[in-house]
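agent: user wants the full assembly modeled, not chains individually. Plan: 1) parse entity lines 2) check alphabet per entity 3) run joint structure prediction 4) return tokens. Steps 1-2 passed, two entities, 482 residues total. Proceeding.
--- entities ---
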Amino acid sequence: MTLNPAIILVQPQLGENIGKTARAMLNFGLTDLRMVSPRDGWPNPSAGPAASGADTVLDQAKVYATVAEAVADCHRVFAATVRDRDMPKPVATPQAAAQIVAEHDASDMNCGFLFGREASGLSNEDVSHADIVLTVPVNPSFGSLNLAQAVILIAYELFNITSTAEPVVPAVREGSASKGESEGLHQHLVDELISRGYFRSEGREATQQRTLRNLILNAGFSSQEVQTLRGVIKSLSRPKC
Amino acid sequence: MTLNPAIILVQPQLGENIGKTARAMLNFGLTDLRMVSPRDGWPNPSAGPAASGADTVLDQAKVYATVAEAVADCHRVFAATVRDRDMPKPVATPQAAAQIVAEHDASDMNCGFLFGREASGLSNEDVSHADIVLTVPVNPSFGSLNLAQAVILIAYELFNITSTAEPVVPAVREGSASKGESEGLHQHLVDELISRGYFRSEGREATQQRTLRNLILNAGFSSQEVQTLRGVIKSLSRPKC
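--- prediction returned ---
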């Protein structure tokens, strides 16, 4: 399953932001870019360079005169806005929105996401075309997402919901050593080895030391184990009795 | 609970990207920005304007000479990289990483995230300081996340995991009308009302029409119901027999 709802930019102002939006979209497999009356017309020469290779999205982009026309084939429309509105619409997070899109996709129904002008966002008139308000939960004292960032968060959630990759979650080990402790062990070991000419092969020293660091980190030693091992190294470094 | 792991930029190149990273962080409440040998020194005059108000993050940012020093107080370190590595490290998605950070936070252990240079990413030497590789699942044929975008995705997941906001998920209604059908009903109704002088109050016409559109959308009519209602309007518009 791949989800590919329409990303609809209402009167976007800068070509650069249109390009960045295309790049954000294609990272997560979205290709249906639509624009309602882009301020500087279309095509826009600033969009291509900002798309960093996502030209296929720009080439397929469609331009409409009104929001109504841009969403005509959609069955469920989301309006991305952080502002409180005097409108009785349900509110969804990006995660919930992705779930809704997936459910509509399963019933062969299209969805669309409206994103507003860079400076002023969506108007009440724009929002009146939507069923659901999409709001990204952000820091209440600093909410400042730009257009491409808002798009990438919904695109990411849409991709996530269809992704089967099972994340590896290593468990927390109680009392595990800090990086400073592990690095101290590593450095202690390396110093002792250097003074004994362990790193003989010219030019391979850095790789050999890195192998030792990985070996120590991957072992996941506790602080106590690191202390033990440093005692061991110290002991090994002394002359035999 | 708020999670605030260290975001560590290894030899970042452009001040603008450092500023954008700070902005991405603060949107989701992250404030612990660290840099390892920023290319153009620190402070960097290009960072502030790009931070769009997230100056508090830049003001508190710490600079280190080496990755080892930057992660010394961390108990679990993630290395953000998309490349396959010849290193035996577990791999986590942003979501899994957020879970791991939350678990460490509950045990009062710090975590850190290493992000590489804009042009070349993290070196094998950098990655050797990490326990876990952080990889964002992306479109296999177009993976092109910039620095601030990679940071914002992990920051978003960290904020999500602590957020208690329950998303509203309206159920799919089978046979629900498309936006084109709903708008057709709305326009039909408005046209008939205009020809009867319904919209009398000067300057309130747009608001009144928007109220009607919201009323129609929020009702969630099926295609069949829209047809029925259009028949009703047509009938009402005829003279009485």
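agent: reporting back. Chain A touches chain B through 78 residues (CB under 8 Å). The beta strands of chain A are 6-10, 33-36, 62-64, 76-80, 91-92, 111-115, 132-134.
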